Amino acid sequence: MRWSRVGAEWSTYVFETIDQVVTLLRQQRYICDRKLATVIFLALKMNKPVLIEGPAGVGKTELAKTVARALNRSLIRLQCYEGLDEARALYEWEYGKQLLYTQILREKIGSLFAEMEDLRAAVEYLRQHEDVFFSEHFMVRRPILQAIASPEPVVLLIDEIDRAEEQFEAFLLEVLSDFQVTVPEIGTIIARHPPLVCITGNSTRELSDALKRRCLHLAIGYPDEERELEIIRLKVPELRETLARQMVGLIRRIRAMDLRKAPSISETLDWAQALVLLNAERLSRELVEETLQLILKYDRDVQQVSAQLPVLLEGADGAARLTFDNMDLREQQERYRTNERAYFSSRREE
Amino acid sequence: MDIPITRFVALLKRHGITVSPAEAIDALQGLALAGIDDRETVRVVLRSTLVKQCQAIAEFDRLFDLFFSLPAPADGSLATGPDGATAPLQLDKNGAEAPAAPEGARAELAPVEIETERTTRAPVTPEYEGVDLSLFGQHLLLQQRRDPGEAGYKPTFHVNARHNPGLPGGGELSAGDPGEEIDLGGAVEALLADLRALEVDEALLEQLEAQLAGSLSRLPDLLRRYRARDAALQRPHNAAPAPPRPRRSYRFNDHERRQMDEIIRRLGRQMRGALSYRKTTNRRGRINVSRTIRSNLKYDGVPFFPVLSNQREERPRLTVICDVSLSVRTTARFMLHLVYSLQSLFSRVRSFVFVSDLAEISAEIERSSLEETIDRVFSGEIINTEENSNYGRALEIFYERYRSAATSRTTLIILGDGRGNRNPPNAWILEELRRRCKQVIWLTPESRGSWHLGASDMPTYAPICHKVEVVRNLDQLGRVAENLVRSSFANRR
Fold this sequence. Notes:
The complex is a heterodimer of chains A (about 350) and B (about 500). With about 350 residues, chain A is of the alpha/beta class. Chain A folds into 3 domains: about 20-85 and about 145-220, Rossmann fold; about 90-140, no CATH class; about 225-340, no CATH class. Chain A is about 50% helix and about 10% strand. Chain A has 16 helices and 9 strands. Chain A has helices at about 20-25, 35-45, 60-70, 85-90, 95-105, 105-115, 120-130, 145-150, 165-180, 210-215, 225-235, 240-255, 265-275, 285-295, 300-315, 330-350, and strands at about 50-55, 75-80, 90-95, 140, 155-160, 180-185, 185-190, 195-200, 215-220. The longest helix of chain A is centred in the last third of the chain and has 21 residues, at about 330-350. Residues about 1-10, about 315-325 and about 340-350 of chain A have low confidence and may be disordered. With about 500 residues, chain B is an alpha/beta fold. Chain B folds into 4 domains: about 1-70; about 95-235, no CATH class; about 280-310, no CATH class; about 315-490, Rossmann fold. Chain B contains 20 helices and 12 strands. In chain B, helix 2 packs antiparallel against helix 3. Chain B is elongated and about 100 Å long. Chain B starts with a helix and ends with a helix. The interface of A and B includes residues 34, 85 and 212 of A.
């Protein structure tokens, strides 16, 4: 059953090529590579949900928001948390309202039944009208149902799905594969326009295979040096180019360390903003130490990094420039360690 | 296009990346939408549709590079077209849809499968059987001319063309029954003649012919490369990982850490599942219609007092007591790792260590890393680890001070060998704890056979516990988790 609703006029863009995705996202001030754009493009063309995984702060949620803006669609967001159930995510009956209505309509109902000859007829009569109390009218729509029943295409963002329990994943399955919701009392509600579903996760726990199978998978990692610079240039244009370069270099070296929480793009941007406010000319040791709290969230990490700062900063001056691009994190770490060893051994020789 | 993709999927599966048929279909659909003219796009499309595990991405990239490419020839002379532009010999879909192949020819070629074998009747070894030249062959058909004359390694080709009656000229390539040996060069000439008959643009044909020139002389070399590539694809399959030897050091690498986490999650799921949804009447929550109506019947059904109830799922509450005395020193690291993982994965875990004294280390674990915690425990900072273990005394301390950590919702896990050095075992405390707790599980590193040797109190303790399991390494822990799940299902039935 579909919602009986007059379809409103809407204007929404359709991506035709992958390059167009890149440009449109860029217009919305989101820098992305072709890899990411390809997945978004496919998701739209194939009507498939996207599962976005990656460390915190690399712009997973931001991507969904930007895509919504770029497509001129509205964004419906469902923040997951432990204990989230279908009453909060899908729909809920308004029992209070139902009870209230029955009470108010008591007299009316009584008069209707007055003419009935026997109980059997009354029950039969009642049965014809029971859908009055189980209709759309008494239903609270929660985000997922909103997205499915929306008269215009929307973007549905299911944020941090790994915070919710596994049962929650299970009831998402119907929505994700068929874009429909079954309400036992009413029937199946099928989306008129399949929403673009973005699911984000921090991989704090392994998601079920059933869920993964229904999605396109997108792993967002830390960007490479050039892209990170580009992002800083876009978001914090006041920052000097040289300082930005120095900063990105240092951040990348910090990321290569074995930290509890490595700084990600959002931290880089915070830091850049702070450096602009502080009118910094270049990264000095004191300055970095004072502002380290902005990029590192754990005391232990701060201590570890400050202990290594001379080495890390030396690198920032270009002495031991490392090419971290196109390496995964483990490689980066190993690379960093070998470089560090080389650095210390060369010192000893001097 | 679907043939190379299904092959690639099969390869992924062989390397432990699970791909469902639905995902393979997605991949094909995605490729059709995104186009296959850019190698990186193809890679992203395949990755996003086929690989859903972050850990598998590196392996996928490696296989992708190997599968969809053949190293360019050393001198680069191979595939130089008439216009001088080098077309590197790549066996990806770009390669399959080789340059200058007219539309008609492409349609014919797609279903052609070519297999090769040595003419020098060498016994067909199993690994040789695996060599699959179909992609290579598809490419070759468009890029070769004549005679790979190298002694001892002279391939012939079996061309099996599927008859496709819908296409003009379809089936012309199948020079006989499947399996019959045909001359490749002849096949090419036949193809060219066929194309001429189709009245394709003559210039295009010449271009094609020119491109084919000189390619076949490189065939043996190419075949060798191809086999090398194939061997690289096969290697991890053939060289099955040696069974992991029991580790002495108990330094855990990443893989083991992940495995441990996975096992413990499974354990947790089981403990979680044991407590089902329970409805509680509450001041918050949803209106419970049936209870509301029932309790308001006295007001003629007017719901003056709505009854609210909550459905709440119980999270596992764990209390872990771990023996770190000398007698279990070899396994204590493993046990502490288990404790550590338990506490970091579940929210309500209290951890204790004991030798003769007993102390809580929950805070330690929260604060520091696994290695730091282990070092601190063994350095004797928290409790004296040099003493002889005294289970009775430890239990007594636990009972006196931390009784509150054992409630009707707690699962108590004791890790230790139960060797109390002839001190009073205080089994009554364990009985008492069993009464208070939901479940008592004892994990011991000693196998049952050795319990009666020396002064072990395990025979006393074992019948009191709900479950006693022998756990010394990850494998056994995995099996325990498995058994717990199975037995709980059996109980439910």
